[in-house]
Amino acid sequence: MAKTERKPSHGDEKLYALRHSTAHVMAGAVLELMPDAKFGFGPPVADGFYYDFDLPRPLQPEDLGKIEAKMREVVKANHAFEHRDMSVKEALDFFRARNQTYKVDQIEKLAADGTSKDSDDRVEGGKVSLYQHNGFVDLCRGPHVARTGDIKAFKLLSIAGAYWRGNERNPQLQRIYGTVWPSQAELDAYLEKLKEIERRDHRALGKDLELFRIDDELGSGLVLWLPNLSIVREELETWWRKVHHERGYTLVYTPHIAHEKIYQRSGHLEKYGENMYGPLALDEGTQNFWIKPMNCPGHIKVFQSKVHSYRELPMRIGELGTVYRYERGGTLHGMLRVRGFTQDDSHIFCSWDQAQAEIGGVFDLAMEFLRVFGYSDPKIYLSTRPVKRLGTDELWDKAEKALADALGVREVPYDIDEGGGVFYAPKIDIKVMDAIGREWQGPTIQIDLNLPERFDVTFVNAQGQRERAVMIHRVLFGSLERFVGGLIEHYAGNFPLWLNWEQATVIPIRDSAFDYGRSVADRLGSRGFRVKLDQQGDMRARIKAAQERKSSYMLIVGDKEAAAGTVSVRRRGSRDEERGVTLDAFLERVSEERDSKALPADFVGHREPSAGDAMA
Question: pLDDT tens for residues 29-77?
Fold first, then answer.
């Protein structure tokens, strides 16, 4: 069984065992249909399971139905899941005889190392654990349900590619995803949710709405922000800068490449080098430069540009800094997993006496930030020291206490993620639910116990002595690419008015109303609204096109409206029109909606009335 991080979405022990058992039943069905099949890993995952196969031919969508039918035969036969242990030698002989080369590779690795980072399998007392049902035997530690008949409501979902052990230098396998639930009602509800997820897929919406593009000639994992989505980004960045200026941040810019000596000192080359781009040999090969994977070292150099007194602290440094990291091709996913992205990195340099208040300020900002975008039900985690870490226990004690105290003062409920911190820092993780109940990683707040030591980051204290500064690292957006890709799905493309690329479309009914339509568009434009004047074609077709473009409002004008100085208003997603609205009244309404950053009425998670509801 592949090693997967156990998460709440994987279910309790019973659900976890159900998903694990169904993966085995699927693998056995594949072997019956394709006797030459070889098996990789097959773990439970969030909401289901998968299994990787090396098969004699590519799978086709119709194969899923055949495999499902065979699985149902096995379920109906109600075979027992039986456990046994084998010595390493017996297990190697067993799987070699069946030409299961990936299982042999796994057992050999386990015999050498005892455990594997790729799986939960292990060697204990010179033996490995196996499970069997209906003649199908797999290397596995469980858990499982008692019998195949305990598996009721399941469905195979899709086929994908995957590399053995996740390494593109290894053979490529075929992965089958499936889902299973305790009842048919739960399965049906999940399948409906999948339909909604597909409807919201940011890659499809990105193409339909002309938002972004990944061009193979430019390079996979590199995002082209098209004009519509560039407007969204511009609005987000403008607001981000305003918020940070108001909270005392100094905004900076740091280079996109740097000499390798800074990454040697930071430890990135040693611990992160395989994810970095470079080296770039410059000056006839005498100097090596690397493309920056993180903004932290640059911000330290900004802080160290002069000696700081304790009176100047805290110093809050922020940057919308673009970084580049190598991600394996098989992991890339639209805007959500990319190789070049812009992070809203900020680093706060302060004393330990100031640390709790600064962490609290960042936390408050993060909560305000999430509410603006309609993210709900935040789950707060305090991630503590891992076994392998840098820094003394005394420093970890102080850092964890500062984080915990900042949450405690606010009486915020949170869970302890024991050992979940990174090797250089404990952290606060904020996870949120989107409009359809999916969990997303939100802002993070860390106290870095590594870089201040490596770079000797100090300030002059009240006694005139150099003192090590505390370095708080935080992101709100995280990656702008990932955040905006998530927003596309969160809003299903229906962006709030303040972010929308087309805030209003003016549609004259007939030629005689064209001049008035133009004056309406000009008036809106003079108030800073993004407006399209659509004069060509059938009126119904123009309204439909505006709806498809996700225009926030359609203003329909004819001779009657021109004479009265009014507009007929149709809100996005609605068939109703509000007639006889004066242009001044409309401008007042939408200005309030824009300036308050109200969520739109067609946002599925929307609960409070917005300015747009007044026109419903």
Answer: 999 999 999 999 998 888 899 999 999 999 999 999 999 999 999 999 9
User: Using CA atoms, how far apart are residues 221 and 503, in angstroms rounded to an integer?
Assistant: 30
**pLDDT score recorded for residue 252:** 97
User: Kind of pairing, strands 376-383 and 415-417?
Assistant: parallel
Give per-residue pLDDT as tens, 201-214: 999 999 999 999 99
Q: Which of 79, 473, 474, 589 is catalytic?
A: 473
pLDDT at 124: 84
Per-position b or e across 337-370, b if 16+ CB within 10 A of its CB: bbbbbbbbbbbbbbbbebbbebbbbbbebbbebb
Dist CA 363 CA 360 (whole Å): 5
Q: Choosing from 174, 343, 356, 503, which is the catalytic residue?
A: 343
pLDDT of residue 272: 83
DSSP string, 172-239: EEEEEEEEEESSHHHHHHHHHHHHHHHHH-HHHHHHHTT-EEE-TTT-TT-EEE-HHHHHHHHHHHHH
Alpha-carbon span 266 to 454, nearest angstrom: 6
Task: Provide the pLDDT for residue 293.
Answer: 94
Which of these is catalytic: 20, 339, 347, 570?
Answer: 347
Annotated catalytic residue 441: no
State residue 116's pLDDT score.
Answer: 67
Q: Is 296 a catalytic residue?
A: yes
Name the active-site residue from 296, 344, 356, 438. 296
All domains in the chain, ordered by first residue: 8-200 (3.30.980.10), 212-255+295-491 (3.30.930.10), 257-291 (no CATH), 504-615 (3.40.50.800)
User: Strand 504-508 relative to strand 553-557: parallel, antiparallel, unpaired?
Assistant: parallel
Alpha helix stretches (DSSP H) within 410-499: 451-454, 480-491
Question: Is 434 a residue of the active site?
Answer: no
410 assigned to active site: no
For residue 562, what pLDDT is reported? 95
* Spans of the chain, pLDDT less than 70: 1-11, 116-119, 605-616
